Amino acid sequence: MIGIYILLVIVSVLWGGSFVVVKDATLVVSPINLAFIRFLFASPIMLTMLLVYKKPKRVAIRDLGWVALLGLTGVTLLYLLQYTGIYLTNASNASVLINTNVLFIAILSTIFLKEKISVKRALGIATAFFGVFIVTAGYSFSINGGGLFGSLLVVLSAFCWAVYSIVGKHLMRRYDDFTLNTYAFVFGTLFFLPSLDLNQMGNLLIDFSKVWFSIFYLSILCSAFGYTVWYYGLSKMDASKTAVFLNLIPLSAILFSVFFLHEVLTIQFIIGALLILSGVYITQKG
């Protein structure tokens, strides 16, 4: 079990580091092209692992639309919005704001899955959203309109993650997590195609050295290795225990942002971040 804990810590820290990698990579490649290349490499790897380690499971025709929706919300829109948001704001902000997905999941579960929302959970949601207001208010009252817009895009990406989670919960009655994620990767990669910057893609093919580390980090370490370890952990531990390791993502992202990107943490950000993370914790426990 100690080995699983270590692997989950490594994956959580890698996912935290992805915010810094994306921030750096979007200086030379557009957010949508970066997201597309990530899943262009990750999807074949996930498909191969699905074939090697599991019996291939065909998706019923009636579920193709739902699986396509998983790809649209959990890959295409999620990472387009998130990467654009990271480009416009800073990595530490994005790593904290993305945690609002827990709040949106709780709200959507109440609406669509008829799950009851307790007073404690409602308090957690309100606390976290107040934290979001504090984090983003700094941009609202400054000349950095791009930072405010970027922060809002990250929150929208968290909403997409919540939609993906709700739809996935519906489909998990018939398919396992790994299968659904693999097919979502494939659909999501295809949905990027109409909006790609083809001129930039051509230049990247000529000079791949500018982004090779980012692609390796995001595709191999975060997607292929990260998801494999995560689902292995879920198969050996309760989901609630596994989810605890996700708290390392914003912490490691903030530390990496300060160390590698020299981002400055304001008192306003720290207070807002603490409110968001506390609200998310209360919501999860509520």
Give an overview of the whole structure.
The chain is mainly α and 286 residues long. The chain has one domain (28-208, 265-285). It is 79% helix and 0% strand. It has 13 helices and no strands. α6 (119-140) runs antiparallel to α7 (145-171). The longest helix has 27 residues, at 145-171. The mean pLDDT is 89.
Q: Tell me the helix content.
A: over 70%
How does the overall form come out from the CA principal axes? globular
What is the quaternary state of this protein? single chain
Q: Identify low-pLDDT runs.
A: none
Main beta sheet: none
Structural class by secondary-structure content: mainly alpha
Question: How many helices does DSSP assign?
Answer: 13
For the termini, the CA-CA separation is 27 Å
Instruction: Give the overall pLDDT as a whole number.
Output: 89
Task: Give the strand content.
Answer: under 5%
Computed CA radius of gyration, to the nearest angstrom: 18 Å
Give me the strand/helix succession: HHHHHHHHHHHHH
According to DSSP, the number of beta strands is 0
Give a short synopsis of this structure.
With 286 residues, the chain is mainly alpha-helical. It has 13 helices and no strands.
